[in-house]
């Protein structure tokens, strides 16, 4: 049992190093350090306990700092011929395909393209069409390092409060994967009884 605890601690630390999300890395690393503390106490490995106690304190401090940090969000609408749009889609093509395999900007009629700026950095891209009374979502993509739902919550809960989607009753989105469906449900979307379609009131 003691060895299993040691293996678990090592696995948590190893997994933490594989993630690119800073907050997730710190949380996993903290969990690994705490399990190592238990392991060190059981085996009387006091130097290991001391160093992991220090690591846990550092991780906890960073987590509190990241959680309390106030980000500034803005929306920036661009035209379909904007170079930034083309470069963003090309750079994140693999990620876009993973969540939106059927997305094709060229096939959309009169699309609205909006960048989500986080501290002036374009971290997300929201592409939709206006099909009154709904905003039909064709792409809602955020760079992996910023997938803590803050950008999404600003878009769906804060931006429309400022009148960004005035005159529309709800957002409508289709899900191509269970992971994306879970994301929509966490944001307050409701799934259509027929399945595959999600809606959220504006």
Structure in a nutshell:
With 202 residues, this protein is of the alpha+beta class. Helices cover 47% and strands 22% of the residues. The chain has helices at 2-16, 22-43, 46-68, 83-91, 93-99, 150-159, 178-186; strands at residues 73-78, 112-118, 121-131, 134-142, 170-174, 190-191, 197-201.
Architecture blueprint of SSEs:
Layout: H1 2-16, H2 22-43, H3 46-68, E1 73-78, H4 83-91, H5 93-99, E2 112-118, E3 121-131, E4 134-142, H6 150-159, E5 170-174, H7 178-186, E6 190-191, E7 197-201
Parallel strand pairs: 4-5
Antiparallel strand pairs: 1-2, 2-3, 3-4, 5-7, 6-7
Description:
The protein folds into two domains: 2-68; 73-201, Aminopeptidase. It is built from seven helices and seven strands. A hairpin with a 2-residue loop joins strand 2 (112-118) and strand 3. Helix 2 (22-43) runs antiparallel to helix 3 (46-68). 22% of the residues are buried. It is of the alpha+beta class.
Q: How many beta-strand elements?
A: 7
Task: Summarize model confidence as the mean pLDDT.
Answer: 91
Shape: elongated
CATH topology of the largest domain: Aminopeptidase
The biggest beta sheet reads: 7 strands, mixed
Helix run count: 7
By oligomeric state, this entry counts as: single chain
CATH architecture level-2 label of the largest domain: 3-Layer(aba) Sandwich
CATH class of the largest domain: Alpha Beta
Q: What is the radius of gyration computed over CA atoms, rounded to a whole number of angstroms? A: 21 Å
Low-confidence stretches: none
- How much of the polypeptide forms β-strand, as a percent range? 15-25%
Gap from first CA to last CA: 52 Å
In total, the number of domains comes to 2
Order of helices and strands: HHHEHHEEEHEHEE
Helix content: 40-55%
Q: Would you tell me the structural class of the helices and strands?
A: alpha+beta
Name of the CATH homologous superfamily of the largest domain: Gcn5-related N-acetyltransferase (GNAT)
């Amino acid at each position: 049992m003691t060895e299993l605890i040691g293996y678990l601690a090592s696995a948590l630390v190893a997994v933490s190093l594989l993630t690119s999300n800073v907050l997730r890395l710190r949380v996993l690393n903290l969990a690994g350090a705490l399990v190592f503390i238990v392991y060190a106490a059981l085996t009387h490995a006091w130097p290991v306990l001391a160093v992991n106690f220090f690591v846990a304190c550092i991780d906890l401090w960073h987590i509190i700092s990241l959680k309390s940090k106030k980000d500034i969000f803005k929306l920036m609408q661009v035209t379909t011929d904007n170079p930034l749009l083309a470069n963003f889609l090309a750079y994140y093509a693999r990620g876009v395909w993973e969540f939106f395999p059927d997305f094709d900007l060229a096939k959309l009629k009169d699309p609205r393209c909006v960048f989500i700026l986080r501290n002036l950095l374009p971290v997300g891209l929201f592409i939709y069409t206006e099909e009154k009374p709904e905003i039909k979502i064709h792409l809602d993509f955020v760079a992996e390092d910023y997938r803590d739902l803050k950008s999404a919550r600003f878009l769906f809960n804060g931006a429309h409060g400022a009148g960004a989607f005035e005159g529309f009753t709800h957002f409508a989105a289709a899900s191509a994967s269970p992971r994306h469906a879970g994301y929509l449900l966490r944001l307050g979307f409701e799934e259509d009884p027929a399945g595959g379609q999600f809606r959220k009131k504006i």
